[in-house]
């Protein structure tokens, strides 16, 4: 587990909300880890219990095992797991709706754009054929090249950001331009 996300992570948080819960034998611990995900998990990964037990030894539980905070932590882990599953179901539905569109394959051919990003771009832009030029798309997204010239002076062009600060497309394209 490289990131604190996903089914296995939240199932382990529900199972081990405190370091004292990790104090079981290796066989029981490997069985718990195996049951923490519906996916097939590699034996090497299951048997790599040293990392989990070492982290448990380094940590300190601030509340008792019987504290209501333990149950609250489990509640929020279960809620996050459910939200993650709902999010994935919506993303799968979006991909299903976007696949027949010709722009979907074009977006997927761009380096750095996967299914989720492609469907988000299509969802936010809507029908791309309604734009007559790239400048109209840039204006809709909220990124425009600023051009300034006066006499013999020609300023360096740079991207301006305006419009809805929560618009996903502006953030995506800003990140794409800087990397």
From TrEMBL:
GO BP terms, alphabetized: DNA transposition
GO MF term (any one): DNA binding
InterPro entries reported for this sequence: Transpos_IS110, Transposase_20
Superkingdom field: Bacteria
Domain Transposase IS116/IS110/IS902 C-terminal span(s) in chain numbering: 105-166
Protein name per the record: Transposase
